[in-house]
Specification:
The protein is mainly alpha-helical. It contains 5 helices and no strands. It has one domain. Helices cover 79% and strands 0% of the residues.
């Protein structure tokens, strides 16, 4: 029995994987929103990316076409990575002690 046969015979495996993926995406979105609310504005892109990824993952299976599902999922990943990269490149503005 191959793993594909096991996935076809047990549809709960992909369902639990999707639940875990959605949980991690929501957890990352909440963490990014917390950082964005504290002044790191580039993390708003990560929040938007998490939202787009969830749209592509959850609604994509039954409501959107395959191209739209891929577009939302890929745009979500790109926005999240771009938001974190902007924060790593430019960082948080330093306080008065950092200027000296």
């Amino acid at each position: 029995m191959t793993p594909l046969d096991a996935a076809a015979a047990h549809p709960l495996l992909p369902t639990f994987a999707l639940i875990g993926l959605v949980y991690l995406t929501c957890l990352g979105g909440v963490f990014a929103a917390k950082l964005a609310w504290r002044g790191r504005s580039s993390y708003w892109l990560a929040v938007l990316g998490g939202f787009f990824f969830l749209i592509g993952t959850l609604w994509g299976r039954g409501y959107l076409s395959g191209g739209a599902t891929f577009t939302f999922g890929a745009a979500g990943i790109v926005l999240a990575v771009f938001g974190v990269a902007l924060d790593l490149i430019f960082g948080q503005p330093g306080g008065p002690a950092a200027a000296e």
